Amino acid sequence: MKKQRVLIGVTGGIAAYKTAALVSQLVQADVDCQVVMTESAHEFIGPATFAALTGRPVATKIFEPARFPLGAHIELAREYSVLCVAPASANFLAKAANGIADDLLSTLYLCFEGPKLFAPAMNCEMWDNPSVQRNVQTLMTDGVHTVGPEVGWLSCRVKGWGRMSEPQKIHDEIQRLFFLMEQPSETEN
Q1: CA distance 15 to 17
Q2: How far, in Å, CA of 144 to CA of 9, rounded?
Q3: Where are the domains of the chain?
Q4: Strands (E), the chain
Q5: Dihedral sign, CA of 133, 177, 70, 60?
Q6: Confidence bin at 66 (pLDDT 50/70/90)
Q7: What average pLDDT score do residues 163-174 get?
Q8: Taking the mean position of all CA atoms in its chain, how far away is CA 4?
Q9: Sequence-ordered list of residues with C-beta below 8 angstroms from that of 139, at least 6 positions apart, any chain
Q10: Percentage of the chain lying above the pLDDT 70 cut
Q11: Which CATH class is domain 5-188?
Q12: Going by C-beta distance under 8 Å and a sequence separation of 6 or more, which residues neighbour residue 108?
C-alpha cells in the first residue's frame, strides 16, 4: 500500500496551535506530512514546532531553488495526495475562491489536483459575513471539502460560530479522503 502523504497549510489565526496537535496525530498514524506556512501564520506559531513534529523543514517561500528547483508549488503539488489547510483564514478562503496566488500556499492551492480539505477558523462576525459565505460556497462548488467551523469559545472572548474543528475531527476527515482515493473508480470496473 502506498504511503499516505498530506500537505498541511497553516494560515494566520490563533487556531494554528491546534494544527500542531493535528500534525502530531498524523505523524503518529504514519502519515507523511509536509507543512506550508503563510507569513501571517508565523505570528501565531513558529515553524520550529512543525519541523520538529514532521522531521522536515517547513515550506514558506515560493522561490527556494536550492530545495525546490522547479518551484515549491509545483513539486509539492506533485508529491502529495491531499492538501489540508488548517486553520483556513477568511483571507485564505478569499484568495482560494478568487484564484489569487500571492504566496506559496495560495499558489500551491491552484496547482494542487488532489482532494483539498479546509478547516475554517475565524471570528464569528467574520464567519457570518456574506462575502466569506460566498467564498465558502464557491470553494465547495469547486470541489473543496470543508470541516467546521464549530460553535465554541473564540479568542475574541465570545461564544459563536468560527471555532476550528478539533484535530481529531480533521484527522478523521483526512483519513476519509485517503480511503476514498484508494477506492477503484467506476471506470476501472
Answers
A1: 5
A2: 14
A3: 5-188
A4: 5-10, 32-37, 82-88, 116-120, 145-146, 150-153, 159-163
A5: positive
A6: confident
A7: 93
A8: 16
A9: 93, 96, 97, 118, 146
A10: 95
A11: alpha beta
A12: 7, 9, 36, 72, 73, 76, 77, 83
Nine-digit cell string for 71: 518551484
Of residues 98 and 154, the one with the higher pLDDT is 98
Do the beta carbons of residue 79 and residue 73 sit within 8 Å?
no
According to the model, what pLDDT value does residue 185 have?
A: 66
- 3-class DSSP assignment, residue 33: strand
> In degrees, to the nearest 5, what angle opens at C-alpha 47 toward C-alphas 40 and 45?
55
Per-residue cell: 32: 507523511
**CB burial of residue 86 (10 Å; 0-12, 13-18, 19+):** buried
Instruction: Give the C-alpha separation, 153 to 169, whole Å.
Output: 17
Distance in angstroms (rounded) separating the CA atoms of residues 72 and 128: 34
Average of pLDDT values for 104-130? 94
The residues annotated as belonging to the active site are: 156
Identify the helix (H) or strand (E) that includes residue 121. Answer: none
- Angle at CA of residue 127, ends 103 and 35, nearest 5°: 35
